[in-house]
Amino acid sequence: MNWEEILDKLESGELRSANKVDGKWVANTAVKEGILASFKAGELKEFSETGHKGFVDKHNLAARMFTPNDGIRMVPGGSSVRRGSYVASGVIIMPPAYINVGAYVDSGSMVDSHALVGSCAQIGKNVHLSAAVQIGGVLEPIGASPVVIEDNCFVGAGAVIVEGIQVLSGAVIAPGVILSKGTPIYDAVKEKQVTDGIIPENAVVVPGTRPVSSKLNWANEIGLSLNCAIIVKYRDSKTDDSLKLEEFLR
Q: Considering the entire predicted model, what is its pTM?
């Protein structure tokens, strides 16, 4: 397939830039190569004819346009969904928000104000990305693991999830949590460290701190600490009640 076919199939949901294989999410390198080829083929263009005077991008990666038939609520006010991204029927996009090329946002999910869904990120069904959430893009290197938020997850305001972190079904990420390859993640329930960058199903994750290295005596003496993330519980009925998605909004 050429890059045009790849972008078309990404938009329709026929192709994804990442897939779950034997229980693990892996990058679809052929798709990512096609996306990179589209950047190379594109020429800079100004988009006055679509009401975006002064905005310049590659001519073949323009923002998508929706109609009521798509079943997507794209609320006015400065949001943009780039060419080559999939947005399912039933998704709500609050302004301003941005969904980049290669991303996949499944049905019933909400992308709230000031939220970013980065290139090739995978967002499942009935996910709530709260205000100012940053879901990082992983377009390069080609084989890099995607950022994934599986079905029925809740990501609190201002959370940042980058560098291929994968959040499995039903997990809750509290406001302000930062998850990256360099962020230590501790499971206080199971009393172990999470080392694979995968947040378990139904985990409830909050921001925390930990002491700096024991080798840095001065830092410890003055009370310095480092950012970490802590699993403090797993979802129960009380958690579910507090996070219930109201169907009438959709």
A: 0.93
